[in-house]
Amino acid sequence: MPLSKVYDITIVGGGIVGLATAYKLQKKYPDLTLAVLEKEDRLASHQTGRNSGVIHSGLYYRPGSYRATNCVNGRKQLVAFAKAYDIDYDVCGKIVVATQEEELPRLEKIRENGIKNGLVGIEVIDKARIKEIEPYIEGIKALWVPESGIIDFKGVTIKLAELIKEINPESEIITNCEVKHLEKGEISKVYTNLGTYKSRYLVFCAGLHSDRMARKDKVNLDMRIVGFRGDYYDLTEVGMKKIKNLVYPVPNPEFPFLGVHFTRMTDGTIECGPNAVFTFKREGYGKTDFNIVDTVEALLYKGTWKLFFKHWRFGLNEYKRAFSKRLFLKQLQRMCPGLTMDDIKPGRSGVRAMALGDTGDVIDDFKIECQDRSIHVLNAPSPAATACLAIGDEVMAMAEKHFGL
Ligand SMILES: Cc1cc2nc3c(=O)[nH]c(=O)nc-3n(C[C@H](O)[C@H](O)[C@H](O)COP(=O)(O)OP(=O)(O)OC[C@H]3O[C@@H](n4cnc5c(N)ncnc54)[C@H](O)[C@@H]3O)c2cc1C
């Protein structure tokens, strides 16, 4: 029973960031007793288990940003981890394809970014080389990025949990345990549906609920999480012959998304997507899912309206595409003109936790804040799954400083 035991650190959230953070703490401080509390019946139920499964190289992110440094560092750690623990992965490389002349300066900018971020082996390739790598893809130029890859992020999360228990059997990973309220003190009380947990320190890695957890902890917030759903299509057996690995468009810098792309998953299937549609339910994976609290909260926030006004045309087009297979296909055909309606079938979806500032600007960098005796990972957007072990290091360094470990 939770009531009598006092944990050293309780981590709220059983996604890849929560588990990577717990693992890093446990590995360096094996005597700490940790509790990881996850509200779902299994780990990695939300963003982590519903993402594209791509090991990002670190190509797109502003040099010097948290995202850039942690992506590159985290990717290296992740690949080493996958190798050591027999997790499915493949550093297969990817191409970023320009289909129009006007995309070429942006492609060059991305290449320069990648080089500044320390990526190795990036090459600008021509039409003929594109065809050698991906015979069905049409582009005028592309970037070949050999350090990108694919991985089973759920498998990573589960392995991290196993390792924590191996290092310290007194630590616990508790599912079906939703944190409802907090009472902070030298020994904090964490009220959940399973009872009250006591802990000296708290770390929150609650993904789509990071702002709500922070508010419960009285953190002064100038941001709010809004959910953006991404739908995927799967390639059918015939369609699968048309894509080998990873094919991305040149992203539009106006928008915080990479654009729909083709991804070979570690189980051999090939997906295309995700689009980006405002969702009326933070953990809503159906096209018409709705939650009154999530909707009212999002629509009462001025940042949401500012975002809508700034990007209404993009938002409208994404909505249309969400309900039209034909329009979705049209977008894919920009890179793969030979793809047909019979080549794709509706697949799964995921919801991104997008942190919006009061001005309607998307907060694109990772954001981690310390509060008295607690740490909040407030914003961990893509590539946070790739960067999870580096984010774990960041949180651990903060914990050492603020908790005096
Ligand atoms: C569609 C999509 C595609 C993406 N593609 C990629 C990609 O290819 N590569 C990449 O690196 N990144 C990708 N990302 C981003 C990546 O998935 C996320 O950055 C990462 O998974 C964040 O992990 P997390 O642990 O912070 O969040 P989550 O995985 O969402 O975990 C948070 C956990 O906290 C739990 N929780 C919340 N509130 C409570 C509570 N009150 N009590 C107990 N538990 C609670 C939730 O149930 C959840 O399990 C993608 C994301 C999406 C949505």
Q: Give a short account of the largest sheet.
A: 9 strands, mixed
CA(first)-CA(last) distance = 26 Å
How much helicity do the residues have? 25-40%
Q: Could you give me the name of the CATH homologous superfamily of the largest domain?
A: FAD/NAD(P)-binding domain
Total domains, how many?
3
* Principal-axes shape call: globular
Question: Strand content of the residues, in percent?
Answer: 25-35%
Specify the oligomeric state: single chain
Bound molecules: flavin-adenine dinucleotide
Radius of gyration, rounded?
Answer: 21 Å
Low-confidence stretches: none
CATH topology of the largest domain: FAD/NAD(P)-binding domain
* CATH hierarchy, class of the largest domain: Alpha Beta
Total number of strands: 20
Number of discrete helical segments: 11
Explain how this protein is built.
The chain has 405 residues and is an alpha+beta fold. It has three domains: 6-48 and 154-222 and 365-402, FAD/NAD(P)-binding domain; 94-146, no CATH class; 223-357, D-Amino Acid Oxidase, Chain A, domain 2, CATH 3.30.9. It is 32% helix and 26% strand. It has helices spanning 16-28, 66-85, 104-116, 127-133, 153-167, 210-216, 292-300, 302-310, 312-323, 325-333, 388-402, and strands at 6-12, 34-37, 54-55, 89-90, 94-98, 123-126, 141-145, 149-151, 172-174, 179-183, 188-192, 195-204, 223-235, 246-249, 261-264, 270-273, 277-278, 344-357, 367-371, 374-379. The strands form three sheets. Strands 5, 6, 7, 13, 14, 15, 16, 17 and 18 form a nine-stranded mixed β-sheet that branches. Strands 1, 2, 9, 10, 11, 12, 19 and 20 form an eight-stranded mixed β-sheet that branches. Strands 3-8-4 form a three-stranded antiparallel β-sheet, covered by helices on one side. A hairpin with a 5-residue loop joins β15 (261-264) and β16 (270-273). The two termini are 26 Å apart. Flavin-adenine dinucleotide binds next to α1 and β18.
